[in-house]
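so my prof wants the structure for this chain in the tokens format not the other one, which i didnt know existed until like an hour ago. anyway here's the sequence
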Amino acid sequence: MKKFPLLVTLLLFTSFCFGQQLIKRLDGTTITTNELTQKVDTLMARAKVIGLEISVFNNKKLIYLKAFGKSNIKTGKPLEITTNMYGASLSKAIFAVLVMKLVEEKIISLDKPLQEYLPKPIYEYPHKVWHEDFTALKDDPRYKKITARMCLSHTTGFPNWRWFEPDEKLRIKYEPGTRYSYSGEGLTYLQVVLEKITGKSLEDLAQEKIFKPLQMSNSSYKWQPFFETDFANGHDKDGKIYEKDKDNAPRGAGTLETTIEDYSKFIEAVLNKKILKSSSYREIFSPQIRIKSKNQFGPGATVDGDFNEDIQLSYGLGWGLIKTPYGKAAFKEGAGSGFHHYGIIFPDKGTAMVIMSNSEHAEGIFKYLLEYGIGDKFTPWKWDQYIPYDQK
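here's what i got, hopefully its the right format
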């Protein structure tokens, strides 16, 4: 009988410790997982965020993974860590690792002009979908200079997407290799060349090289029928629901369908240098070009200055890079159709945070979540225009 109270005490203590697992922030301070949960709940309520998911990593291991809110405000269905989420430009981070895997296998080189891999000009190939149409490049020989490195570092000179151009035609706006200008078109050009070189689709390559090895069974660059059972809808700033887009042709720049659970497997693999050799990760996280622009998008994208000199903002291969007192950090954003995502890793510390949301209000709490959750005060939130909800 004397042992019973001790057993109960031990069980209660174990339960308490599990529920109160510590998260170590970059500066060495700690918070409990329950404190982070309470902070997320508070910020979501204040900023009117409908659904949000977070994962946190310490010492290269996942220590926090949680979903909050709703996947669809009308149905009231809860958002789960296994709920399908449109990944938007988080697609690019995975695509970069895929490309580097093909570089390791000597299928492609980072610095050989992509046109040189093809027996005829890229614009002469027939196309089944719009992103395979390069006929507009026929009269601009500068496209022959474009390499895989330029595509992954957003220095091709292409616009983000051709449909933002007045005539919706693809064109080179800057001399290839000279300026950072975010471009989904650049990665798509690289994808199309890779598909021609390998004779395999992007989806087949991603499944073979990334998704299956990492057991990311709920990830794909195209809509899959089994996603129908549990998927999130994006919501605009008025809470209106975006219709789910299910007919996109696979693009490494932006059609990823995934879950926070699956994407966290990818981040953990990157932190632990799986899939690729250490030398390949060094290449990915090596600055390719310094970024001088005031903002990533909009009018500020063409305004240059020393806005982010303190963090030496630059771009690597598929990821943005910054310099911090805790070593370099690599980040990737994603946005579209009511979804807003952000992930950042500090490789030297083994610390990372991923935020995924199906609400356009989410970007208004990114700064606070990063600062509170892992002590990240270095993310270039002004450049990304993640203006806090209480500063708008």
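also thought this was worth mentioning. Residues 1-18 have pLDDT under 50 and may be disordered.
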